[in-house]
Amino acid sequence: MSILKSLVIISVIGIFLTPRYSESTISCSVVINDLQPCVSYLTSGNGQPPETCCEGVRSLDAATTTSADKKAACECIKSVANSVTVKPELAKALASNCNASLPVDASSTVDCNT
């Protein structure tokens, strides 16, 4: 077997065995879908959020694993929060009240660059 032929075979095998990494970030539709059950709580609720809301918050928490995901989720939350009046104290405490660690509160004033 020639050296050239061996190199070609190794190169082809390498192409198929190289892991594929996705550069895409979480979509705004996923963020909205996860947080939709929280809207009525954030706008007119009190006390603890409903379990359906917390399930969405925890789902979003699990889906935002990279810095790019977190920034994309933040930008989406911020744009939606601009069109809805939420109670700031509920928005700020949402993640902790749901035992999640989202790096952003659900408000229109959050800084997504930090």
From TrEMBL:
> What range does the record give for the signal peptide?
1-22
Q: Which SMART domains match?
A: AAI
UniProt keywords (A-Z) are: Lipid-binding, Signal, Transport
Q: Which GO terms describe its molecular function?
A: lipid binding
Q: Which residues form the Bifunctional inhibitor/plant lipid transfer protein/seed storage helical domain?
A: 28-112
A biological process (GO) of this protein is:
lipid transport
Family matches, as Gene3D superfamilies: Plant lipid-transfer and hydrophobic proteins (1.10.110.10)
> Quick check: keyword Hydrolase in the entry?
no
- Protein family per UniProt: Belongs to the plant LTP family.
Main function: Plant non-specific lipid-transfer proteins transfer phospholipids as well as galactolipids across membranes. May play a role in wax or cutin deposition in the cell walls of expanding epidermal cells and certain secretory tissues.
User: Can you name this protein?
Assistant: Non-specific lipid-transfer protein
Biological source species: Brassica carinata (Ethiopian mustard)
List the taxonomic lineage: Eukaryota, Viridiplantae, Streptophyta, Embryophyta, Tracheophyta
